[in-house]
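Page 42, continued from yesterday. The earlier attempt failed because a stray header line got pasted into the input along with the sequence. Redoing it now with the clean sequence only.
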Amino acid sequence: MVEVDNRGLLTVEAAQKEFEPACVYVNTASIGLPPRRTVEALDEAIELWRTGRAEAAGYDELIARARRRFAGWPRPQPAPSALTGRLLDSQRTM
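This time it went through. C-alpha cells are written below.
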C-alpha cells in the first residue's frame, strides 16, 4: 500500500521509494523518471503481450478507468476523425 498523508498525497518517504535514479538526476523538466509502480505495470503488460497472453478486451476496463480519472469521460466515446471534418465541410459547400 502506498503511504499517503491526510490530504491523500504521497508522503515524501513514499515518493522517494517510487523512483530509482542510478545517479543524481536533474533532467526532470524534459524527461522525468517513471515511478516504480508505472514500471511494474508496464513490465507486466509487456510480459503478457510478449508471451501472447494479452487480449484487446482485457484492456477495456483499464481504458474506461483511465478515461474517468484523467479525462472525466463517463463512457467510451470515439474521437472524431479527420474525415468527419472533411465530410461536414463538403456538406456546407453543397
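Notes: Helices lie at 12-17, 28-31, 36-50, 60-71, 82-92.
Reminder to self: strip header lines before submitting.
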